[in-house]
Design a protein that fits this description.
5-stranded mixed barrel, alpha+beta, globular, two-stranded antiparallel sheet
């Protein structure tokens, strides 16, 4: 009996990332621009849970989720350490986040999309590497032909940077948790993805010991 036909696959562990990684990936989408709360996959069960209501009025400017079977560990964080000439930055211990640009109105998360990575945002969350891969929805009428982040209009990138550097802030506190480091193009994004997949394999092997 094929259990995959009976039971829903865990979004992080049970969904294939695709056959053309890193040039194309399957992404699991947790939240969409119309959401007023931040949903996040519960790592134990695989179900979407409410992480927190959005504290401010800003909304996520793209489809947002993660790449299955990825993990932000030491190999992925090594790139951030090299970029900042540091050695103390670690991965955040979560799947690799991904933003998927599309001209379509997608009304809910808990879905899988095929996406083409074109770059990324290098961010720090309390000195942990917290990269956001920027991708376009495969065959999208507006964004689908873009092959590198440099082709994305600057206001779109600024909107993404603003969201991710403020979405964890707490009203009334003057503490900025997220720090923007830099953007990078498709070639680096491919390296980040490959490293996160290697980190995932290492993480799972260590978990089985």
């Amino acid at each position: 009996m094929d259990l995959h036909r009976i039971y829903k696959s865990h979004p992080w562990h049970g969904i294939s990332v695709g056959d053309n990684v890193p040039e194309e990936v399957r992404a699991f989408i947790e939240i969409v621009p119309t959401d007023t709360v931040k949903y996040e996959v519960d790592k134990a069960s695989g179900y979407l849970s409410i992480d927190r209501p959005q504290k401010f009025s800003n909304i996520v400017p793209s489809l947002y989720g993660f790449i299955p079977k990825s993990y932000c560990g030491p190999k992925m964080a090594e790139l951030t350490n090299k970029a900042l000439a540091r050695v103390d930055i670690e991965g955040d211990g979560d799947p690799l986040d991904i933003c998927v640009l599309t001209e379509k109105d997608v009304t809910h998360g808990d879905i899988i999309v095929n996406a083409i990575p074109i770059g990324g945002l290098r961010l720090l969350d309390h000195n942990q590497a917290d990269d956001k891969i920027i991708a376009v929805l495969k065959n999208d009428a507006v964004y689908g032909a873009m092959a590198d982040i440099e082709q994305v209009p600057t206001p779109i990138i600024r909107r993404l940077i603003h969201y991710f550097t403020t979405y964890k802030d707490i009203p009334g506190e003057n503490i900025t948790r997220m720090k923007f480091v830099s953007t990078y193009g498709a070639k680096v994004a491919h390296d980040v993805i490959n490293r996160s997949l290697e980190d995932y394999n290492d993480y799972m092997e260590a978990s089985d010991r």
